[in-house]
Design brief:
Shape: globular
Helix content: 10-25%
């Protein structure tokens, strides 16, 4: 990547994934800015020539060591952060996906300082990235619909 994530000239495209296993979703506390220390879905920037789905699964593998099978695209989420002068410090458009766990036990690392498998009730009170609760609500509903098929 040739452009900085800080003060970008255009939005940065990213993909994330809500992985489900036994009715719980995998969350990772971010190990790096932006939103360091907040729980979020594993994910990251889409690389050139990579589909959103490929990026979501690659980031899941790289970030927490888990393999999964995608079951669908949940929704887009935008993260826009301004500095004190009002300039755009971050602008990231994230395509959130839902998936089912296939293999691998999640592990922490530089990008994921803590890992949790959570139920819908567990989310309340967790420090999360903006918009995560709404994305997880949709992801849990998606997982329930797919499980009923």
């Amino acid at each position: 990547m040739t452009e900085s994530r800080l003060y970008p000239s255009r939005p940065i495209l990213a993909a994330s994934v809500a992985v489900f296993r036994d009715g719980r979703a995998l969350l990772a506390a971010r190990g790096k800015p932006p939103s360091e220390g907040l729980f979020s879905l594993p994910g990251g920037q889409v690389e050139i020539g990579e589909t959103l789905a490929e990026a979501a699964l690659r980031e899941l593998r790289e970030e927490v060591g888990v393999e999964a099978k995608l079951i669908g695209l949940i929704a887009p989420l935008e993260f826009i952060e301004r500095d004190r002068e009002g300039r755009i410090k971050h602008h990231i458009v994230i395509a959130a996906h839902a998936a089912r766990w296939v293999s691998g036990e999640p592990r922490t690392g530089p990008e994921a300082k803590e890992i949790r498998w959570v139920t819908e009730r567990d989310i309340v009170g967790l420090p999360t990235t903006p918009g995560l609760a709404a994305i997880l609500e949709r992801a849990f509903a998606f997982d329930r619909r797919e499980s009923a098929r």
